[in-house]
């Protein structure tokens, strides 16, 4: 998730959204485990975040989404990679609508 891996887990972080379950600090930023609610159920994702707050990478760890967008977003197909790639470089409150 982060070039160079991570050094330590951060246990005191502010998450008003309630979706962050774990945060790891590395030399090149943070790896953040999030569990947002999808269209069908919760997803578990790891998000690489640069020191400036921008998204470096997204990986869907697990999901029980229905066939369609949720399943495609998690797949290793070109459509899945493209879907996740659209968030790379973004920052702030990013949502799928």
For the biggest sheet, the summary is: 5 strands, antiparallel
Secondary-structure element order, N to C: EEEEEHH
The structure class reads alpha+beta
Number of H- or I-type helical stretches: 2
The poorly predicted ranges are: none
What's the N-to-C terminus distance?
Answer: 25 Å
What's the shape?
globular
Total beta strands: 5
DSSP helix fraction: 10-25%
The radius of gyration computed from the alpha-carbon positions, rounded to a whole number of angstroms, is 13 Å
Which key terms come to mind for this protein?
five-stranded antiparallel sheet, 2 helices, 97 residues, alpha+beta
Provide a short characterization of the protein structure.
With 97 residues, the chain is of the alpha+beta class. It contains 2 helices and 5 strands.
Structural features, described:
This protein is an alpha+beta fold and 97 residues long. It is built from 2 helices and 5 strands. The two termini are 25 Å apart. The relative contact order is 0.16.
Secondary structure topology:
Blueprint: E1 8-10, E2 20-26, E3 29-34, E4 44-49, E5 55-62, H1 69-74, H2 78-85
């Amino acid at each position: 998730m982060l070039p160079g891996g991570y050094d330590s887990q951060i246990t005191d972080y502010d998450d008003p959204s309630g979706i962050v379950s774990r945060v790891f600090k590395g030399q090149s930023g943070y790896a953040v485990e999030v569990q947002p609610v999808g269209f069908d159920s919760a997803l578990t994702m790891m998000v690489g975040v640069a020191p400036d707050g921008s998204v470096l990478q997204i990986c869907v760890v697990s999901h029980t989404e229905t066939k369609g967008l949720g399943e495609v977003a998690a797949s290793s197909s070109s459509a899945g990679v493209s879907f996740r790639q659209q968030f790379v470089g973004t920052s702030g409150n990013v949502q799928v609508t």
